[in-house]
Amino acid sequence: MNTTALIMAGGRGERFWPRSRRNLPKQFLSLTDDGKTMIQLTVERILPLVKMEDIYIATNKNYRDLVRSQLPEIPEENILCEPVGRNTAPCIGLGAAHIGKKYEDALMLVLPSDHLIKFNNMFLSALRAACQVAGEGDNLVTLGITPTYPETGYGYIKFNPHATLGAAYEVERFVEKPTLEVAKEYLETEEYLWNSGMFIWKLSSIWKNLGKYMPETCSRLKTIAAAIGTPEEETVLEREFAAMPSVSIDYGIMEKAEHIYTIPGTFGWDDVGSWLAVERIKKTNEDGNVVNGNVITIDTHNCIIQGKGKLIASVGLRDLIIVDTDDAILICEKHKAGDIRKVTENLKICNRDEYL
Amino acid sequence: MNTTALIMAGGRGERFWPRSRRNLPKQFLSLTDDGKTMIQLTVERILPLVKMEDIYIATNKNYRDLVRSQLPEIPEENILCEPVGRNTAPCIGLGAAHIGKKYEDALMLVLPSDHLIKFNNMFLSALRAACQVAGEGDNLVTLGITPTYPETGYGYIKFNPHATLGAAYEVERFVEKPTLEVAKEYLETEEYLWNSGMFIWKLSSIWKNLGKYMPETCSRLKTIAAAIGTPEEETVLEREFAAMPSVSIDYGIMEKAEHIYTIPGTFGWDDVGSWLAVERIKKTNEDGNVVNGNVITIDTHNCIIQGKGKLIASVGLRDLIIVDTDDAILICEKHKAGDIRKVTENLKICNRDEYL
C-alpha cells in the first residue's frame, strides 16, 4: 500500500511575534541553525518514507505562494487551500478527499508543519511501526511523546500498558491540558504520553470513522471529493467547506472512535510553542544565553537574543527574550512569553496591521 | 565690570551610549521634552546675565561644527578649540586668555555644558550673588549644590557655616567622592555641598592664582594669549597647549588657593550623569515608565524606554533602560547603568569604531 502524507500548514501562530507575522507564520520561519524553515524540515524528514509527489500540504490561500517558494518540489496540485479555517477534522478530510483521487486506498500520515524533531531516524522508526499498525483493520494510530517533565500546555494520551499491538499500545482516552498537580501524577504513572497531533491511518479507516462520528461533515467532504477536477471544484469547495463546523480531529473522532493505538516515541520532539523553545533547539553559550546576530552581552545570563543587522548591547540582564526585526523589537521577560499575544492584541485593537 | 562666560563643551561622555557617540557627545543631545540640546539650554539659561557676544565655548576641533550649528548666535571667534584634551585648568586658562583680549578685567562664569537646571531664576540669583562675592578682592567662588541624598558619585565641598561673605560661605576644603557611609555623615552635618563644577571669578583673580599655583601652565597660557590674533596663533596654541600637564581646576587651584567661597544652591541641578537621569528629568507615567517613541508596554514597570521609529514592545519588564538608535539598541538593567562603558570598551577593543 502506498504511503502518503498530509502536512497541515494553515496555522497563524502569533507566539513568535515579531518574527512571525500574519503573512509569515511560524511554519515558514527558520528557527534552527541550518537555515531551513519548519515546513521544509517537516517534508525533508519524511522523504525516506513518502515520495515527494505523495506529500500534500493543506494551507490557506494567503500562504500558497510561501509554500510554493519554500517547497518547489511539491506538485502544485498537492497544495490544498482551505477556503476558511475549520480546525483539523475538515482539513484532514480535504486531504483524504484529494489523496483518494490518486489512490483507492493508501496509508496517510497527518503531520503538523511547525514541530521540530531532533532524532529523525527514531522518528522514522516510529512512523514505520505506526504504518504497520495502521495497515491492519481500521486502526487509527497517533504518535505519543514520552513526557520528560509535567508540562501543562499539552494534551495527554492515556494508554493501556497491557494491551499492545506490535509496537503500539491501545489508547484508553485523550485528556485535556492538565493542572501541574495532575501532570505530575501522569508523569509518575508512566501510562500517559503527550499528544503530538501526528496521526497515521488508511484513507478507508478515516472515511469510515468520519462517516460514523461526523456524518454531516463526511457527506460534505464527499461532495467536495466528487467535484475535484471538475469546473465546479472551487465553488463546491468554498460552499461545502464553509458549511462544516469547526472541529478538531481529536474531539471529532479520536476521543470517540474505537481501535485507537499510540506509538510512544522519544525522538526529540518539540512543538516549538514559544520563543522559549529556542533555548532547547539551539546551543546556549557558557553564560546560558542563546545569541544570534550582532550582539554584545555584558553580565547577561540565560537570555535569548535574536538580532538582525542592528547591534544589540545587553548589560546586566537575566531571563529575557530579545528579538529584533526590521520594524519591531520585542523585549520580554521569559516567564511572560505567554503574554506576547497581548502585544498583538493591542496592535489589532489599534488597527496597526503593518505590525501583525 | 562686564560679565562673561566660558562654557566647557569638550567632553566625550560615553554614558549615554548608544545615543551619545564620539561625534555627538551628551552636551549636543536633547534629553528634555523641549527638544533643545544641553548646550543650547546652558547658553539660554545665562542670557539674562551675559550678552551673547560675551559667551565663549571651549571645545575641540571635532565639535566646532556642532557648536556652530547648534549655537549660530555665538560669534565664531568665541568658539575656542583645544588642540588636545588637558582637563579643566588649561581649558579655563585658554578661555581667560581669549576673554582678556576683549576686556582688561571681567567677571568670568565657568560652566559645564551638559548639566540641567530646573529652576532658572533661582540659578540666576545664585550666579548674581556669586558675581558680587567674586567682584571683591581675588575671591574664587564656586556654586555648591545642597545635597538631597548621600550621592557617592560626586565630590563634596566642606564650608564653614560661621564664615560668610554676602550669600557665600568660606570653603574649608574640597573632598573626593565619598563612600556611602561618609556621604551619609556629610548629609547629616549640613556643612557639605555637592561640587557642581561651576565657578565665578575675575580674570585678574584666576590669573593671579594660576601664576601662584600653576606657574608653568600660567606662563604657557600667557604665551598663547600673546599670540592670539597673530599669524602664529595656531602654531603657538598647538605647541604650548600640548606641553601643559593635564590638571583639573579643582586639583590645580581650588584645593590649594585662599579666598575660596561657595554659594549654596537648590535650583534643581542635575549633572545628567547617566540614562537614569531621564527619570528625574522627564515625567514618568502611572506605571513608573518614562517612554518616548513608538512603544507598547505590557506589564512593564519603572523602565526607561527611548524609541526611534521602530516599534518597541515590552512584556513583563522591570527596571530596564532600553534605548534604540538607527544602528544600535541598548538594553540595560537600571542598576548596571555604570557598566554601559563596558560596551563601549568592548567596541573599542574590537575596532568597531562605527558604533563609537
UniProtKB/TrEMBL annotation, chains A, B:
Its EC number is 2.7.7.13. One of its GO terms (biological process) is GDP-mannose biosynthetic process. It catalyses: alpha-D-mannose 1-phosphate + GTP + H(+) = GDP-alpha-D-mannose + diphosphate. Residues 293-347 form the MannoseP isomerase/GMP-like beta-helix domain. It comes from the Bacteria. Transmembrane segments: none annotated. One of its GO terms (molecular function) is mannose-1-phosphate guanylyltransferase (GTP) activity. The keyword Transferase applies. Keywords: GTP-binding, Nucleotide-binding, Nucleotidyltransferase, Transferase. Residues 5-283 form the Nucleotidyl transferase domain. InterPro entries: GMPP_N, ManC/GMP-like_b-helix, Mannose-6P_isomerase_type2, NTP_transferase_dom, Nucleotide-diphossugar_trans. The keyword Nucleotidyltransferase applies. Belongs to the mannose-6-phosphate isomerase type 2 family. This is mannose-1-phosphate guanylyltransferase. The lineage of its organism: Bacteria, Bacillati, Bacillota, Clostridia, Lachnospirales.
